[in-house]
Amino acid sequence: MRIRFPDGTSVTACSLAERRDDDSERDFGLYLDARWAPTWPAEVVDWPDFGLPASREAAADQIVAAFGRARNRERVEVGCLGGLGRTGTVLACMAVLAGVPPAEAVAWVRTNYDVRAVETEEQADWVAWFAARAGTQPRRRGRHEIRPESGLRAAGSGTGTRSRE
């Protein structure tokens, strides 16, 4: 499913069951489960199902870098096993980078992606940690520098779209 964030950046989110080796609509993948075993340009985050990343700093850097790629018009895919908990958590972090207020990021993902996204309280809390970290300094990785959007929107005014492609 293609997710368009309020700043216009978009990514594709999916589960392992939707994995396609020959996806011409993907330039890069950020995967939260080693079973993806990508043979295309990608990074795999060590992140157990229903849990948190083994290294939250490294995972945060990978999320920021993947969002930077998407913001630069690369076609980025995000996925885990079921496409809900870990994928939803990453989408909520990306929503923060796109300008969604941190306190609204999980709700935004549940409205614009899947009501079941971000499956645990720990994952929701990790989004808040990520937002605090992202707000402290810009992150640079390669040629991508990401700063959260400065104009916070009132509740309900940050729109996003989703589409099945």
In the sheet with the most strands, the strands line up as: 4-3-5-2-1-8
Name given to the CATH architecture: Alpha-Beta Complex
Strand content: 15-25%
Query: How many β-strands, per DSSP?
Result: 8
- Poorly predicted segments: 136-165
How far apart are the first and last residues' alpha carbons, in Å? 6 Å
The CATH topology annotation reads as Protein-Tyrosine Phosphatase, Chain A
CATH class: Alpha Beta
- What number of domains? 1
Q: Quickly give the structural class.
A: alpha/beta
Largest sheet: 6 strands, mixed
Helices and strands, in order, run as EEEEHEHHHEEE
Mean pLDDT: 86
Continuous helix count = 4
Helix content: 25-40%
Radius of gyration: 14 Å
Structural notes for this entry:
There is one protein chain. The radius of gyration is 14 Å and the shape is globular. The protein starts with a strand and ends with a strand. Helix 2 (85-97) packs across helix 3 and helix 2 (85-97) runs parallel beside helix 4 (121-134). The longest helix is centred in the middle third of the chain and has 16 residues, at 56-71. It is 31% helix and 18% strand. Strands 4-3-5-2-1-8 form a 6-stranded mixed beta sheet, covered by helices on one side. Strands 6-7 form a two-stranded antiparallel ribbon. The protein has helices at residues 56-71, 85-97, 105-112, 121-134, and strands spanning 2-4, 10-15, 28-31, 42-44, 76-80, 139-141, 144-146, 161-163. Residues 136-165 have low confidence and may be disordered.
